[in-house]
Amino acid sequence: MFDFLDSGQYDLLGAFWVTTQLALYSAIGSLVWGTALVAMRVGPVPLLRAFGTGYVNVVRNTPLTVVIVGCSIGLNQTLGFSLGADRFEDIGFRMAVLGLVAYTGTFVCEALRSGINTVPVGQAEAARALGLGFFQVLTLIVLPQAFRAVVAPLANVLIALTKNTTVAAAIGVAEAALLMKDMIENEADALFAVFAVFAFGFVVLTLPMGLLLGWVSKRVAVKR
């Protein structure tokens, strides 16, 4: 049933390695962009608040496929942005990361905003009474507690991000979903085995991540 794995025709580990890289780079970028968005949304500048609110509401409700294809067609093919890459494969990979960051950052932002709401208002007021500015209050007092409060929701976002990397196949990134498509076309007599292999691969990627971050969430939880 699984004879196609021994043929050497398919680079299964290479495809999942690309998926892992997509998830890793996108997770880092999403945390940074999501943190910046939440700072805009809770900040004192009306223009930034409006931008953050509008961006989150629009991008979060746009299909991820549209976001990633839009990055590829709009930024690369139309405007000529390549993010420093020369080869088609590298350009596609970086555009996929950009699209995943732009999309997933909105969910990180909302998770962090819910964490900020768990921080007692009196702590921020006490910090301002000591002469700290907004940025200092946010980075020294509020965000550290917010991150601790939302480890579990962020873990769910990260797991969803890992599964969402399959959308990168829409712009030709050689990750797991694109290889699965080729295997389905070539191994029509072993469809169940192909699905089982890729389902197991994603379980291997996401299950340990969920268990680890669940343990971290319990360890760092803020006791009220």
Automatic annotation (TrEMBL):
Residues 16-213 form the ABC transmembrane type-1 domain. CDD domains: TM_PBP2. Its main location: membrane. The keyword DNA damage does not apply. It is a multi-pass membrane protein. Belongs to the binding-protein-dependent transport system permease family. HisMQ subfamily. This is Amino acid ABC transporter permease.
